[in-house]
Amino acid sequence: MIGRLRCLVLDCPDAWELAAFYRKLIGGEVVGPEPRWAVGEGAAVLRGDSGPVLAFQSVADHRPPVWGAPEQQFHLDVRVDDLDAAHQAVLALGAESLDDGGDGAAWRVYADPAGHPFRLVLP
Q1: d(CA 107, CA 80)
Q2: Domain map (residue ranges) of the chain
Q3: CATH number belonging to domain 76-121
Q4: What does the alpha-carbon distance between residue 34 and residue 54 come to, in Å, rounded to a whole number?
Q5: Which residue among 55, 99, 106, 117 is least enclosed by CB atoms within 10 Å?
Q6: pTM of the model
Q7: Cα 4 from chain centroid (whole Å)
Q8: Across the strands, what pairs with 46?
């Protein structure tokens, strides 16, 4: 092993707005830029009870990835117990539905307010 994952940094138009979205989705506490995460002044950090730290940095010319396109780089998976209830909840937070997975699928795909894809997945 060379190292350990410290945090995942998401570029976005507004770091605090996107951090607030993910706080409502997965919980945790949003804090300002921390020297050890060193992502700049236009940054916010979401620390939860478990899992990696999510950091958000404001980028003026942010271009969101396109779900399913060759240049897509990654997506986040968020485990939920009820896909239908979680679907309604993330739409109310401002997420956009991208792919319902089809009949019987154990996942659905959304874009956060900055356009990053994430999936709601059943255990």
Answers
A1: 9
A2: 7-58, 76-121
A3: 3.30.720
A4: 12
A5: 106
A6: 0.84
A7: 20
A8: 30, 54
**pLDDT tens per residue, the chain (123 residues)?**
775 777 888 999 999 999 999 999 999 999 877 666 555 668 898 988 777 789 898 888 888 888 887 776 778 899 999 999 999 999 999 999 999 988 889 999 999 999 999 999 999
- List CB contacts of 91: < 8 A, sequence separation 6 or more: 97
End-to-end CA distance of the chain: 28
Give the pLDDT confidence score for residue 29 in this predicted structure: 92
Alpha-carbon distance values, 93 to 39, 77, 103 (Å): 25, 17, 25
- Read off the DSSP letter of residue 3: -
The per-residue pLDDT for 28 is: 93
Burial of 81 (0-12, 13-18, 19+ CB in 10 A): exposed
- R_g of the chain computed on alpha carbons: 15
